[in-house]
Design a protein that fits this description.
Radius of gyration: 20 Å
Helix content: 55-70%
Structural class: mainly alpha
Low-confidence stretches: 24-30
Order of helices and strands: HHEEEEHHHHHHHHE
Strand content: 5-15%
Number of helices: 10
Length: 239
């Protein structure tokens, strides 16, 4: 993981975005709680709650501690600018949600139900979805099924929107080969076609991910100009 991040820095942006906006992970619970207190940011008329921001920031900090096995000096954490990164990710998520609504992207009740039932966190001892465990976990995290399912529906809608944008990024075999050659040249290594063919699938996967993130980043740069974004004065403006 760390090696990939150092080799392809843009991957850290993708991973941090996923960590920041997600509210349930397999093997652990991260819930976005309903926030009736002050706002962290406003995107148009929509508000991003301060608690939502704090939860996202905590997840991002935990992510860094895990990949570096907890060996991160406090001063380094300060230089990472996680506050701005967390807020930026949440603002972008809200923009994507609003754009998806404009384009008629939706999630059916069946799709929502499937997502709930497929979540391993809610499986019982028999390996099947357990309503008792579902309600128990939500209650322990201060949530109701209605709130959780509303958040989950939004997350699925955002996923569809992001996929729609990213699917426009297509790399041919020659483009993957050229990227591999540049990588080897930077390392002063010789290109060998047989080695490329042996690694082609993995190289294509990584290069496609990079191309998709670059496309998504460029797309979001354009979208932000169409929205009025207001940051709570107590917080720093996201980068």
């Amino acid at each position: 993981m760390i090696e990939l991040i150092h080799k392809y820095p843009i991957l850290i942006k993708l991973l941090l975005t996923l960590v920041t906006v997600a509210f349930v992970f397999t093997g652990g619970y991260f819930f976005t709680r309903e926030d009736t207190s002050s706002y962290a940011a406003k995107v148009g008329k929509a508000k991003i709650g301060m608690q939502q921001y704090q939860d996202a920031l905590s997840r991002m900090e935990e992510f860094y501690r895990k990949i570096y096995q907890g060996n991160i000096p406090p001063e380094m954490m300060g230089k990472l600018g996680l506050e701005q990164k967390a807020l930026s990710a949440l603002v972008d998520r809200e923009i994507q949600l609003q754009e998806a609504e404009k384009q008629g992207i939706s999630v059916s009740d069946d799709e929502l139900s499937d997502a709930v039932h497929e979540n391993k966190s809610f499986l019982g001892e028999d390996g099947r979805f357990s309503m008792a465990r579902y309600t128990e976990i939500l209650k322990a995290n201060g949530m109701t099924p209605a709130v959780y399912e509303r958040e989950l529906r939004d997350e699925l809608i955002v996923d569809k929107f992001r996929k729609m944008v990213k699917d426009a990024a297509y790399l041919s075999e020659n483009e993957v080969r050229d990227a591999y050659k540049k990588q080897l040249a930077a390392q002063k290594k010789e290109f060998k076609e047989e080695e490329f063919q042996a690694q082609k699938e993995n190289l294509w996967r990584v290069q496609t991910m990079l191309a998709q993130e670059k496309l998504m980043s460029s797309f979001m740069d354009g979208l932000r100009k169409n929205y009025k974004i207001e940051i709570n004065p107590s917080l720093k403006t996201p980068a």
